[in-house]
Structures are given as structure tokens and as C-alpha cells.
Amino acid sequence: MVRKSASGRIGIADVAVKAGVSHATVSRVMNGNFTVDPEIAARVRAAAVELKYQPNPVGRSLALGKTDTIGIVVPDLANPTFQAILRGLSRAAAQDGYRVLIADSFEVSSEETILAGEARRRCDGLVLCAPRMSDAELEEIAPSLRPLVLINRTTAAAGVPSLVVDYGQGVQDIAEHLVELGHTRLAFLAGPPRSASNNLRLQGLEAFKAAHPQVEVTMLEGGSDFDTGHGAVDAVLESGATGILAFNDLVAMGLMSGLHERGLDVPGDISVTGFDDIPFARYTTPTLTTAAVPITELGEQAWHQLRALIRNEESDAPGSRYQPKLEVRASTGPAKAARTAVHG
Amino acid sequence: MVRKSASGRIGIADVAVKAGVSHATVSRVMNGNFTVDPEIAARVRAAAVELKYQPNPVGRSLALGKTDTIGIVVPDLANPTFQAILRGLSRAAAQDGYRVLIADSFEVSSEETILAGEARRRCDGLVLCAPRMSDAELEEIAPSLRPLVLINRTTAAAGVPSLVVDYGQGVQDIAEHLVELGHTRLAFLAGPPRSASNNLRLQGLEAFKAAHPQVEVTMLEGGSDFDTGHGAVDAVLESGATGILAFNDLVAMGLMSGLHERGLDVPGDISVTGFDDIPFARYTTPTLTTAAVPITELGEQAWHQLRALIRNEESDAPGSRYQPKLEVRASTGPAKAARTAVHG
DNA sequence: ATGAAAGCGCTAACAC
DNA sequence: GTGTTAGCGCTTTCAT
């Protein structure tokens, strides 16, 4: 029995009526099933075009058990790193006909769990970006979120690949670079406390300190944006360090700006380094020494991993590690005679 | 008849079985229907918790005819302007329990129509961000996309509010500022050709030229990123202009960087202005004179408009106009004695 | 107050 | 080859 669609919108039933066939046939035609008589198929297609019929994805999703949508949960959509990941992910997924649903947790780790679950139920898979939740919680919810890909975080839960940038190694490379320039007093302007990538940087610094006991490394609290860097000038000067490793490029830029306002020269008085190599980094004055992370590619790879899981294929690289690449530019230079700490 | 859910996942039927009630009752409880006996309701809730049951949003969407999701179509997710709009939109929508589905058209205007339609069918409403398509096409498809909100674009189609930034006025304010500083030869480093906001800027410049016939305004082709600005140094110098209006802050930063490399001083030799007032603008060297656009707020307002349409309420402000605010910083200064055009 | 049943729009197994 | 029918998981009349 064929009824006309009840709602206002054009449904498969309307096309069926117009073409004088059953809605099953319409469905077949719309899905390219070749067992349909060419003549009838043409009639159906004509009716569909005339009525501007487009299958309702919700009905389709319910019947097929898939949504052709993936979700991504990020701690902060304002952060350029996550924007870049989102961009890479969205572009790659789009090429395979998948859309992306975004969920911003605004750095509230308790919210993350809820958001992730909700997003996952609407989608065929999930990318969890540098989640702020604890290892225990992550491991507990991970199975229920699969297919799941982790970025900048790992978990003991099975079948959950993760893509992580080796921030630890990157920080060590930067520190080595500063030491080679003669710096013996360094300071690290840290990122958000719960950030996994910040922890990796801290671990890297520990390794560095162990290898270079003669170098003094001061730890300063921070954040991930310009203002953090700009506001850290006092603390930086107080530390007496001549080589500053900022959490990321944004922080470095804010810091350089603040130092400039104080009449200090970079790298003449102080060398500053960033992290990420965002496009801005090569246009700052001076241009910024940093560690390049192929961050958009990370988003793209996340999709490839997720796609493999969704298709139930063997993942070719279950968990990849990305090595940042040191980019030496103009914000770092030889250490000048040791500065004395400035107090106040 | 109550059957257990067929698929692997926990469904409403499983909870019904466990609680010894019909799934209708479970549905009532899950939706806070108070006609259910408190004792039974408690039993159902307990069963739901124990089974970790969460209603399937797809089934819900099909039954309710709504998805609690909105879509946003942007021409380029890499553009900070659209990122900011997305952020504002996402944050505001999340507060009302709505999620955001993104569709990036990658500046391909033919793709926009398809993407918009697809996104719309999965969502309860759509935000179309500075679409590149023609007025005719926009007007034609707009009705089928409603509830629809336009950003930086208007249409004759009925019931489609739009939020537009008055880029024309902003550009005029900047140009006036440069004239007051004594500049008589200006150049505009344009944005993407199909960009509506670029057209608005061009219109603003026409108005400016009409009001200031004595001022020479050179038009230069451009784009919307750093590289555009950086690569425009030759053209800028060739123009002989002393006051350069860059399409946006990114272009301005690229240009300043390029000028710096040539040993030219900003604003000593040339004044440079941006547009948007992205956070970076106050940290460049020199700090950037620009026109501030409350772009995140724009995304937020887009949601409020869309929400009103979805709820079928009267929109309180059917189509708002945002005035950019001139921010004078250090990248603009008095014109020095007229430079002669540099050739080659 | 609760269960049975219809229906949201679609796909797919099953008959013919 | 095509129509009939039974779901997909949920909400919501309509009976009781």
C-alpha cells in the first residue's frame, strides 16, 4: 500500500505515487540497484527530479544503522591546534562522504565524558582530541565510544588507536638548540595544567635536565594563548633565564611582544622559542624559532584510522607517533654574558 | 509485545524487559512524563542506569522530526573569520542543547548548494556563511533551506534573516584615518574575488573615492592569507602608495613582514592597516591599526536568530548590521614626503 | 496509569 | 523485476 507522505516534505512515498511504483522500487533506484527495469528506473528518476526529492538521511540512518557522520570532541575550539586538526579531519572525511559533528568541552573535563557519549551516539565514530579526563576515566569509557581514535593521548583500552605528537622530543630538540647557542639558564613557560601535550613537554624537559645537569631550567606557570605570554614577562625576567621555551607559538608571540614593550631585544637580550610552527610563526618580528608539527595531517590521519575501524579493516598503523621538526629562525641567538636576575 | 533489542546495543526494549514494563512506559520515564507511577518510574530509571541505557538519537529524531543539530556551511575552515563564527555559533547553540555539523565548501561555489542541502536535511536549521554562490542561486535555494540564517550576505528570499558586518563603512573609516594622517596615495590589497565581504569593502572604497577625489586609490589583487600580503610587497611598492589597506589582519601581517625584510619601516615609510582585529593584531610589531569586528558575537547572534526561526518565534531583529570599530595602533603614522613609484 | 499499536522515512528480505 | 512486509528505535495517540 502506498500512502502519500504525511509531513510537509517530499518523501519516498510521494515519488512512488508519482512514478506509479512502490516505494521499495524508488528506494532501489535511489540506491543504484540495477535489478530495476531501466524504463521504470528512468520514470522514477524523473519523478524524483520533478519533485526535487532527496532521501531523508534520518530515516536512512535508522534503517542502515549508520549516519555517515563522525564526531570530534575538542577541549577548546579557540585553540589553533584543534582548529587545524578539525580542518584536516573534516577535509579528509568529506572526501569519503562523511560529515563532522563538533563538540567543544570548553576545557571542562567532566563535560567531556557526557559530550563524547552524546556525540558518539549520533555518529559512526569519534575522534577524541587531547581529552582532559583522567586515564582511569578514559579507559573506562573508551570501549563504549568505539570506533574511537585518540589524539595526543593514549589509553590501555583495547582497539583504540592514538596519534600522538612527540612533544617531549620536540622540547628536547629546542632546549638542545638553545644550549648549543650557549644558553645555560632556560625557562619553560608551561601550558594548561591538564593538557596532555603539556605533560609530554614536561617529561621531555626532565629528560633534558638529566642529560644536562649544568643547565638551570626554571618552570613557570602559563597557559596557551597570547595573553599568557604577554603577561609572563615579569616572571620570565625574574627567572634570569636567557632562553625561554614557550608552550606554543602563541605564547611565544605574546612574550616577544611584551619583551619588546620593555625595550628588550629578541634574540639580543633573550632568545624565545615557540612550538607548533603555526603559519604566523614565519612572519613575526623576529621570525620565530619553533618546532614544526604537521597538525593538519594529524587530523587527516585520524580520519584514516577511524575509517579503518568503521570499515572493520586492519588498521595499517595502529597508533602513530609524529616527530616535531626544529625550525631555527631569528628569535634565537647566542647567549650574551649571563644576565642577573631582575627582582620586582 | 516486548522484544529484546536486536542489535548489539542496549535499546529501549532491553530496559522495558528489565523493568517489567512496556517500552512506552520507558519512553515516558525517559522524557519526564509525570503520568507514570513514581514507583514504576523509579524501577525504570534503575534499570536504565544499570544497563547504561541512553536513548538512540536517530530513532528519536525520526519520531520527533527534529535532530537537535544545526549545520553551518563555510567557504574555508582555515579562515580565522569563519573559525570565530563557528566558535561563537557552537558555544551558543550548545547552551540550548544543540550540536553543530560543519560543512566546508573549500571555496567551490558549485559545491555549496549541494553541501547546504545535504547538511540541512540532517539538521533542524542552517547557517550559511558568506556563500560564494550567485544572488540568483542563493535566492532560489534559500526557501528550501529554511530555517536559514545568512552571514555576510543578504537575499531577497523571504523569511531569511541575515547578519552582516558593514565592511564598507569600516574600510571608509580606515581610509579616512589614513587621509587625516596626510596620506594621499592609498592602495587596497583586495581579498578573494568571490568574497561578499570583499565586495562590500570595494563598495566602501568607491564611496570614499567619491568623497575624496583628490586621493589616489590603487586596487591590487590579493587573497586572504599571510602569503598574499607577503607576496604583495612588489605590487605595493610599485603603486607608490604610502597608506595600504590590507583585506584583513592576516594579509596586513604578511605585508608588514615583507616590508620589514626589504628594510622598509612601518609606519615610517609606509602605513599598513588590517581588518577584523584578530587577537594577534595587538601583538604584531608594530601593533596593527585595524577595524574591530565582533566576529564571535556574530556566530552567537546567528544562533539566536536561527533558534527563533526553529521555535517559530518572532525574530527580535530580523537582519542585523554590525559596525566595525576603528582601532588605531602603531602601524599607521603621518605620511612622509611623497614617495616616487618604484619600478621593477 | 499503562500497554498495544501506529507511525516517523527509509532499506532489505521475502515472495511472486 | 517488482510489490508486500517487516523492521531500524523511538514517541505518541488510543484504548483500557
UniProtKB/TrEMBL annotation, chains A, B:
Transmembrane segments: none annotated. Residues 314-344 are annotated as: Disordered. SMART domains: HTH_LACI (SM00354). Coiled coil: none annotated. Keywords: DNA-binding, Transcription, Transcription regulation. Residues 10-64 form the HTH lacI-type domain. One of its GO terms (molecular function) is DNA binding. The keyword Glycosyltransferase does not apply. CDD domains: HTH_LacI, PBP1_LacI_sugar_binding-like. InterPro entries: HTH_LacI, LacI/GalR-like_sensor, Lambda_DNA-bd_dom_sf, Peripla_BP_I. PANTHER family: HTH-TYPE TRANSCRIPTIONAL REGULATOR GALS, LACI-RELATED TRANSCRIPTIONAL REPRESSOR. This is LacI family DNA-binding transcriptional regulator. It comes from Pseudarthrobacter quantipunctorum.
